[in-house]
Structure formats: structure tokens, C-alpha cells
Amino acid sequence: MPHPVQQVTWYEAVLYANLLSVQQGLNVCYYADDALTTPIDVTNYTSGSVYCDWSANGYRLPSEGEWEYFCRAGTTTTFSVVEPNFTECVNYMSGVLPNLESVAWFNANRYDSLGNNSTKPVGMKNANPWGLYDVHGNVWEWCWDRYDSSYPSGSATDYLGPTSGTNRVIRGGGWPDEPYNCRSAVRKSRHPDSTSNYGFRLCRSVD
Predict the structure, then answer these.
(1) What local confidence, expressed as pLDDT, does residue 116 receive?
(2) Which of 98, 138, 144, 152 could tie 61 with a disulfide, CB 3.0–4.6 Å?
(3) 48 part of a folded domain
(4) How far apart are CA 100 and CA 115, in angstroms?
């Protein structure tokens, strides 16, 4: 099984989404102008604004609200599995959080049998209740939204984040992170040019 994509910027994730849409004959989601006439492509993806056509049927990054919705998959607990042993303690040893280890790679189980300390192939852990793998840990995932410290505390419909700002949201935690950063609710702010343990998960709008 392949490892998840990582070390990619937000801009590269947006470009990939458009390129995949074109390859599959779908309508692209991302444009360089708010009139949605100039698609994001290899000539313009590294600078300027990016606008999303939410009605397009092509691939795109999930909004932050969509990400949390599919990560939780109908659950209301700290993770998409119940982990009664979890507190905010940082330095867990392997085996202390068995339920979380069943679905996630994080700092307690990041070493494999050969001592490798890195991402792990996708789909090796159990899926969440909606059949999605690696929503906790392994790599952080870019979302569409600009970061704002204010985030809806109650229910929200089609929340798309603020309309201004530079940094974008990452979600989910990564393989070297403590379990606190792998919670369904955790959210971080990163510059869209950043490259670290950041990957992405694409989605599409459907009728």
C-alpha cells in the first residue's frame, strides 16, 4: 500500500485537484478570479487569490466543516472511536490507548517493527464509522478554509470559513503528534506555502 501524500503546500493540493478533474473530464473547482473564468493551472497556482466554484463536480479540498463532519462520522466523542484512557497527557506509551491505536498512527505507535519513524501506508488501521481511513494521525490534512480563531461552537450548515486572511486550516494530526492533536475537533493554522507533515484528502460535490 502507498504512503499518504505529504510535504505538499496548500497551493499544490489545489493544483492537483484541478489537474485530476481535467484528467477525468470533470468541471474544475478552482479559479484565479472571482468571475470563475481563469482556472488554476501550472502557470498560476503559486501566487494570487484562489476562488472555488462550489457547484462544480470536480475534485476539491473539503471545507473545514466538511472535514470535521466526515471525521466524526456521526460520533460526538473526542475521536471517532471511544477511548476511555485518553486525557491531555502528551507522552503515552504504546498500548495505553488501544482504541485510538486501532484507527490512528501517532506518537505512541509511530515506530514500526524495523524502527522506522515515519508515515505509514494508508488503510492499515481500522476505518471510522463511515469507512474513511486515517482521519486521525498519519498526516495533517489541508482544508479549504482560511483560518480564524472563531469557529462555530454549535451546528452550522455549509460553513466555508472567513472570506479574508492568509493562513489555511489543517486538521487531523500526524504520525509524530501526541493524541491531543489527533482529536476530531483540533484545528491548526498554517501558511499555504508551508510544507511539513501536510497532505490532503479530496472530495466532490454531488447532487
Answers:
(1) 75
(2) 144
(3) no
(4) 21
On whether residue 42 sits in a domain, the answer given is: no
Residue 19 lies in a domain: no
- Give Cα separations from 18 to 3, 14, 160, 170 (angstroms): 22, 7, 19, 20
List alpha helices for 24-97, DSSP H. 64-72
* CATH code (residue 80): 3.90.1580.10
pLDDT per position as a tens digit, 82-139? 999 998 877 788 889 999 999 999 999 988 777 778 899 999 999 999 999 999 999 9
Half-sphere exposure of 104 (CA within 13 A, CB side): 34
Q: Is 39 helix (H, G, I), strand (E, B) or coil?
A: strand
In terms of Cα–Cα distance, which of 43, 49, 7 is closest to 30? 49
* Four-residue CA torsion sign, 89, 178, 127, 76: positive
Number of domains in the chain: 1
11 three-state secondary structure: helix
Residue 113: domain span: 62-207
Q: Using an 8 Å Cβ cutoff, are 83 and 99 in contact?
A: yes
C-alpha cell at 69: 463532519
Q: Which grid coordinates belong to 75?
A: 460520533
Is 85 part of a structural domain of the chain? yes
Which helix (H) or strand (E) segment holds residue 17: the answer is helix 10-23
